[in-house]
Design a protein that fits this description.
The protein is built from 2 helices and 4 strands. Bound molecules: zinc ion.
Length: 110
């Protein structure tokens, strides 16, 4: 890879704090031969160049919540099994109805 100094307008990978992803950025400002400001090509947010460093994910409250939820769920009784389907399905009912009609027809002939 050519190790040339970055120039304005160069497309470089950097971490976008808005998109929270490593994305293509335009170099919009240089300082001491290094990109100082970059603009995300996805959300067009301009921010300090982060040297493509994805911030280390801190143990967020969300993770704590998740584990707490899991703890609570572990202590709770299992949800009841889904109710079995009704024994008399519509199809069966329809069949019975036709059987009934046939029976009535048969009895009328008599
Ligand atoms: Zn972005």
């Amino acid at each position: 890879m050519a190790d040339r100094a970055p120039r304005l307008g160069d497309v470089i990978d950097d971490y976008c704090p808005r998109c929270r992803l490593l994305l293509n950025h335009d170099v919009t400002s240089l300082y001491d031969g290094e990109p100082a400001k970059v603009t995300c090509r996805t959300c067009h947010d301009t921010h300090d160049y982060r040297h493509a460093q994805v911030p280390v994910k801190r143990k967020t409250r969300k993770d704590d919540k998740q584990s707490l939820l899991e703890q609570v769920l572990a202590t709770m009784p299992r949800p009841p099994e889904p109710a079995p389907p009704p024994l008399e399905t519509p199809a069966k009912k329809r069949r019975d109805l036709w059987a009934e009609v046939e029976r009535i027809k048969g009895s009328k002939k008599d």
